[in-house]
């Protein structure tokens, strides 16, 4: 009975050894292979018959055979369980001559027949391969990659780090990462690092702070640093990806200067337009005034032709005056717009309609409207906006069709959409952007009078309040002008 159980145990053990995912082999005191399992056959490509009785060295590359012979001798003198070749690259040699990275564990086994070694062999090619890939990926990364342990010691750097900081990797490995931090930030750095290890996560370093790296030559470079925690056998490490942002900084700086210059010259230009148009009004009024005097006083002594000339001159002066006052309005939009206050758009619209009463009556226009909101803006400018849009809707009506105009309001996500719809002549698609530019008109003065400034003023008013303006139209059927206004806009 007992021997029956022993037999069963033995079978079980044999099977366990045979199918172990780890290569197992037993070596006798003379380093001869006594027993191997399937995994050893797989790893080394020999059959067990080929291995039995051979020296263990058959499984080692020629270069390390002597070393192993010494090691084996030592082991038999001082047998205890140990892992072999920890920390160094141990390699096995396959039957086909190729070498593979392996890990070996040694266990002494004492039997009546003497001392044996039970040796476990693990093929770590896959692990070595993925480590190799990881290193290759880091090496060729376009950013500087620096891996640091909890104490701040640099354990890995790539080529780009060498280029970025001007150190060789030998000068960096094993040193404190603080050598790459400018002196004035250095004392706080360990604290930040501790904080990261307490709360590891992928993130940007120093959100909101400007970061600098210190090169070997003492020059500081502005950098952006991404932090990634990496869990390894040696514990948690942090992998930093460092990007030199000098050129981006320079570009930003240049852009800022250009924007400031532009703003200044724009202001100067507006100032100029304002003063010029203001000063031009005066002599123009004089011209028109004297022309009228001439006409009144000398009407009887002038012939038809002369009266005609005077009429043309008065007409020109009036138009010029109109142009100048529109220009003045345009250049004033910015100044006035600076003081924003809550404006009830319903009242602004009422005022605009009151100003347009004459042309509404003359054209027989009907105007309908939705209830409008109160927004932040300048009251006079919003009156102006409605007056220009509705004025155009009346002016650009179709012949023989009474204008029907609707002012609509559509509350949208975060903004108001205000529309002015007409049933007028419409605008061909190719002109729908151009009409918002100053002096751009689509018609001769004879057909429709105007200066071409009205919509440019509208655009300026709307954009100043943080909104936008555009038109949708069907030629010969009508147009709808849309303006958006942010719902909770900050004061401009
Ligand atoms: P103006 O009305 O003084 O010509 P605007 O800047 O107000 O200048 O308008 C520019 C041009 O856009 C107009 O000349 C006209 O051709 C076109 N336009 C504006 N509003 C309308 C409209 N409601 N329907 C058709 N065309 C329009």
What shape does the CA trace take? elongated
Which fold does the CATH topology of the largest domain refer to? Answer: Heat Shock Protein 90
Largest sheet: 6 strands, antiparallel
CATH superfamily of the largest domain: Histidine kinase-like ATPase, C-terminal domain
Q: Give me the number of helical elements.
A: 15
CATH architecture of the largest domain: 2-Layer Sandwich
Report the β-strand fraction as a percent range.
15-25%
CATH class label of the largest domain: Alpha Beta
- Gap between N and C termini, in Å? 99 Å
Low-pLDDT residue intervals, each spanning 5 or more residues: none
Question: Which value, in Å, is the CA radius of gyration?
Answer: 44 Å
Structural class: alpha+beta
List the helices and strands and how they pair.
Blueprint: H1 2-19, E1 23-28, E2 33-36, H2 38-44, H3 48-51, H4 62-77, E3 82-84, E4 91-93, E5 99-111, E6 114-123, H5 125-140, E7 144-148, E8 154-157, H6 159-165, H7 169-172, H8 183-186, H9 189-198, E9 203-204, E10 211-214, E11 220-232, E12 235-244, H10 246-298, H11 304-337, E13 341-344, H12 345-355, H13 357-363, E14 366-369, E15 374-377, H14 379-395, E16 404-412, E17 415-421, H15 454-464, E18 469-474, E19 478-486
Parallel strand pairs: 14-16
Antiparallel strand pairs: 1-2, 1-6, 3-5, 4-5, 5-6, 7-8, 7-12, 9-11, 10-11, 11-12, 13-15, 16-17, 17-19, 18-19
Helix pairs in contact: 10-11, 11-15, 12-14, 14-15
Bound molecules: adenosine-5'-diphosphate.
């Amino acid at each position: 009975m007992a021997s029956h159980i022993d037999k069963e145990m033995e079978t079980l053990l044999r099977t366990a050894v045979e199918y172990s995912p780890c290569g197992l082999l037993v070596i006798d005191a003379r380093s001869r292979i006594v027993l191997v399992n399937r995994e050893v056959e797989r790893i080394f490509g020999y059959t067990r018959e080929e291995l039995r009785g051979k020296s263990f060295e058959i499984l080692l590359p020629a270069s390390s055979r002597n070393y192993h012979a010494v090691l084996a001798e030592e082991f038999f003198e001082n047998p205890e369980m140990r892992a072999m070749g920890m920390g160094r690259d141990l390699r096995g040699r396959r039957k086909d001559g190729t070498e593979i990275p392996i890990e070996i564990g040694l266990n002494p086994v004492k039997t009546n027949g003497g001392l044996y070694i039970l040796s476990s062999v693990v093929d770590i090619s896959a692990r070595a391969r993925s480590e190799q890939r990881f290193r290759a990926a880091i090496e060729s990364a376009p950013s500087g990659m620096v891996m640091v342990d909890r104490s701040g010691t640099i354990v890995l750097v790539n080529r780009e780090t060498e280029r970025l900081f001007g150190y060789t990797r030998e000068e960096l490995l094993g040193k404190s990462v603080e050598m790459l931090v400018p002196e004035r930030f250095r004392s706080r750095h360990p604290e930040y690092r501790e904080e990261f290890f307490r709360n590891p996560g992928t993130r940007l370093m120093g959100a909101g702070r400007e970061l600098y790296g210190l090169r070997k030559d003492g020059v500081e470079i502005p950098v952006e640093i991404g932090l990634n925690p990496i869990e390894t056998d040696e514990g948690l490490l942090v992998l930093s990806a460092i990007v030199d942002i000098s050129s981006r900084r320079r570009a930003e700086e240049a852009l800022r200067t250009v924007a400031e210059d532009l703003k200044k010259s724009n202001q100067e230009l507006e100032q100029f337009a304002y003063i010029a148009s203001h000063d031009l009004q005066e002599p123009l009024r004089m011209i028109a005034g004297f022309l009228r005097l001439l006409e009144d006083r000398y009407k009887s002594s002038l012939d038809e032709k002369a009266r005609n000339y005077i009429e043309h001159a008065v007409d020109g002066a009036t138009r010029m005056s109109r142009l100048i006052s529109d220009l003045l309005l345009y250049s004033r939009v910015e100044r006035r717009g600076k003081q924003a206050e809550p404006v009830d758009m319903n009242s602004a619209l009422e005022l605009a309609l009151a100003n347009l009463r004459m042309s509404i009556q003359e054209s027989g226009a009907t105007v309908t409207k939705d209830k409008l909101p109160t927004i932040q803006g300048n009251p006079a400018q919003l009156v102006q906006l409605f007056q220009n849009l509705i004025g155009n809707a009346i002016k650009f009506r179709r012949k023989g069709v009474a204008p029907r105009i609707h002012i609509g309001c559509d509350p949208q996500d975060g903004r108001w959409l205000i529309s002015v719809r007409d049933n007028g002549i419409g605008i061909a698609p190719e002109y729908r952007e151009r009409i918002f530019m100053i002096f751009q008109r689509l018609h001769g003065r004879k057909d429709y009078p105007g200066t071409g400034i009205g919509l440019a003023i509208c655009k300026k008013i709307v954009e100043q309040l943080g909104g936008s303006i555009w038109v949708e139209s069907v030629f010969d059927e009508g147009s709808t002008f849309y303006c958006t206004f942010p719902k909770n806009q900050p004061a401009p």
